Amino acid sequence: MTLFEIIILAIIQGLTEFLPISSSAHLLLPNIILGWKEQGLAFDVAVHVGSLAAVVIYFRRDLIKMAYAWFGQLAGAEATHESRMAWWLIAATLPAVVIGFLAKGLIEHYARSGWVIAFTTIFFGLLLLWADRTAKQTRNIKELGWKGALLIGVFQVLALIPGTSRSGITMTAGLMIGLDRYSAARFSFMLSIPVIIGAGTLLTLDLLSEPSLVDWSAILYGSILSFVSAYLCIYFFLSWIGRIGMLPFVIYRLFLGILLLILLI
């Protein structure tokens, strides 16, 4: 990989991991338009590590409080908002873990195509717009509850289909159950932590099973750039989403999906 390819792909990964615009659709474009080869497992691991570091550092205070309260509850202390949040994140993660394990081969065989990515980019973008425009958005994250967390987790399973956007579909679900935009985005971002850890672990195991030469400079630059772009993305998205809404991202997804269809014809 050239330095230019490393910079572009790392920034794409960092931004699209959290914006509701589909990372798989964006990573497909350089391959179609510029003929770039796949970046390889080592680089995938590096950019996942960068994205994970960004979201963990951003929510570090919340995560420490949740861990302390969760272990405290296990030891017999009373439940608090922080301990309940930890349980909700666990509950919302389980559906994707179970279905992802059972359907991994099926999805990789049938769903990883440019046509699927183009159509899902458009369809789930329109679903996000519908949820943003019709939902009440009267609940904050403290009012999520077990049912809400599980519903978001079930919707997250759809992100196994390339082009759906994990952040996009979980925000859609959050809005549908009445969360305000900020709360839906905040829970979606925190929910990404176990997902990224899981994906990164699987990629690392695949990498270890296929020994090859590693471009350490690509790993270093990729992890740093994905960290910076992901952290800035989280910060500005949470700062602005209450004011700008989901429409700009939906419009972008529609243009992106149509562009992919044109390029694939």
What is the element layout, followed by pairings?
Blueprint: H1 3-16, H2 23-34, H3 41-58, H4 60-74, H5 81-110, H6 114-134, H7 145-157, H8 166-176, H9 181-209, H10 216-244, H11 247-264
Brief sketch in words of this structure:
This protein is an all-alpha fold.
What does this structure look like?
The chain has 11 helices and no strands. The protein is mainly alpha-helical and 265 residues long. It has one domain.
Helicity level: over 70%
- Low-pLDDT parts are none
Beta content comes to under 5%
* Mean residue pLDDT: 87
Radius of gyration: 18 Å
Key terms:
single chain; 265 residues; mainly alpha; globular
